[in-house]
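Deliverable D4.2, example record:
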Amino acid sequence: MVGGWISRGRCPGTENNQKNFTGDLYIPGLKEKELKIDILAIFAHPDDEAYGPGGTLAKYARGGYKVGLITLTRGEAGSMGICKTLPPEEVARMRTEELKCAAKELNLAYLRMYSLPDKALENYPAEEGIRIVKTEMLALKPTVVITFHDKGISGHPDHIAVAQWTREAVKQLDSRPRLFFYGVSPSQAEKIKPYRSVIPFENGEITHIIQTQDFFPYKLAAIRCHASQIELWEKFQQIEGGYEYFARQEHFSQIYPPLSVSQPYSDLLESPE
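Output generated by the structure prediction step:
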């Protein structure tokens, strides 16, 4: 567990755009000027990081690399469990604390949460979303950026918007990080189908498979932090072979620079240029 999480306010360099940049930053004992992130994950909602590439994030974070996370909404429109009975402001507060808990379990070096409108990112001005993501990447200079598969994995419009913003933000940088889409394999999609509809990678799209079975306890701890989403966890426990078996590998497609492979690579930080 990482302690000492401190709110640092808005994104550095955005003082003139505070109406657009409303992120709260939580850093465990690091000064902002010292931050240089190896891997930066960019997602829409609290819990996307845990149910998504949580094993990969934990693997690198606990292997000595600096791993950061940007979450663009507070998840206030959540429709599972207790979220159905609470006002949006209370859901946002609760899910913020859940995400901070998950970030500690994954050993993240950097967490920033924005307050863009949950379940409405497809209607949010794309240029503002791109600007937020681009500003973060300029400040942190990540080697690798991870976001959703461009079909959003579950097809969620918020996921698709974030993937589009991130891809465009990378294109606009002079010095570009390697960009990866996270998704599920066709075999994983088939296993999870009775409990959740997902859109898998197509054949040939997967360029990297990360073995995460040794880091499943950290992924599971992060999932359990998201107590408001317990209904989803209860469904996933019914997966044939168990969720731990399902989550033993995490799958990625390298989008920039473009890459085609005959056999998937096993390390995001050692990808060929």
